[in-house]
Amino acid sequence: MTKMEFDRHRRLRQSASIRKMVRETKLDQDDFIYPIFVKEAGSEKTEVSSMPGVYQWPLTEVLQEVEEIVNLGIPSVILFGLPIEKDAVGSSAFHDHGIVQEATRIIKEAYPELTVIADTCLCQFTDHGHCGVIKGNDIDNDPSLQILAQTAISQAKAGADIIAPSNMMDGFVAVIRQGLDEAGFEHVPVMAYSVKYASAFYGPFRDAAHGAPSFGDRKTYQMDPANREEALREAQSDLNEGADFLIVKPALSYLDIIREVKDFSGVPLVAYNVSGEYAMVKAAALNGWINEREVVLEKLLSMKRAGADLILTYHAKDAVKWMKQSIEKGDQ
Ligand code: PBG
């Protein structure tokens, strides 16, 4: 019988050792950014019901959480604030003693080496829950920009290492960059939520951060999930305006966008593995329907394979624990 011609891909899969040698993508604990919700009210941590394992932390307790993150070797956190006072323009977002500013000071004092990223948005701080100021039924772009710049400056003053504006107003990177520079914070990078879709996957976050809009939706400023060319235009604008990192959000349903933005931008790209993506895995795992460890590590790996340099994820602490166990057990 003549030998048939075909490729033998299985040669490179035959042993754990060879599989390791040819593995193209690896997760690393340095890739992770862990989100922390800090709240002004109350003195005890509260679990977010739609996000098991995720808590809102009062300032008096938050260092417990931070200590665990530091001990695991996760290099950075992003802070989301829950203020007591809300008003039409989100004044508590740019107050020098606002919740994010105070949390930043406490965390940086205890752990100066940890990178603290401040989420810069107004929706948790406005009484209408939108990410900018309101005129009639509209979200008014340009007047919102000054407030965002003021917020970013007060966060940088409190010691935030990176500013992460998530509001999706046009020109937000330009105005924030200029504001930071003029206030003497030229060295503080901007990690822009450049490609942020109007996604149903943010539901649990809105429970966690009390940030649901009281009227309408976010579709006039967040992107239509159907669009990819527009994602490239958004990313290009933010690069032109001085963004140092780009974020694509959500992650899992947008892996194609992560790849495209990474390929054309040439700057560090962050995948935001959002609350709804976390909640779905948690719900299935709690029912015993999936293997949580395997599913989480596979989906985080898929974000890196798609081109993410960094992953902002509520799974970060678990993922790092599992990665350490795998190394000890020699799993592959
Ligand atoms: C606020 C903000 C949101 C998220 C991060 N920052 C919610 C929203 O835009 O409605 C969502 C994060 C998540 O779902 O994990 N602008």
TrEMBL record:
Matches recorded under SMART domains: ALAD (SM01004)
Keyword Ion transport: no
Keyword terms, alphabetized: Heme biosynthesis, Lyase, Porphyrin biosynthesis
UniProt GO MF annotations: porphobilinogen synthase activity
EC id: 4.2.1.24
InterPro entries for the chain: ALAD, ALAD_AS, Aldolase_TIM
Residues in the signal sequence: none
Top-level EC class as recorded in UniProt: lyase
Reactions catalysed: 2 5-aminolevulinate = porphobilinogen + 2 H2O + H(+)
Record's keyword annotation contains Lipoprotein: no
Superkingdom of this protein's organism: Bacteria
Pathway: Porphyrin-containing compound metabolism; protoporphyrin-IX biosynthesis; coproporphyrinogen-III from 5-aminolevulinate: step 1/4
Alphabetized Pfam families for the sequence: ALAD
Family indicated by similarity: Belongs to the ALAD family.
Oligomer status and interactors: Homooctamer.
Record's function text: Catalyzes an early step in the biosynthesis of tetrapyrroles. Binds two molecules of 5-aminolevulinate per subunit, each at a distinct site, and catalyzes their condensation to form porphobilinogen.
Name listed for the protein in its UniProt record: Delta-aminolevulinic acid dehydratase
Organism (species): Alkalicoccobacillus murimartini
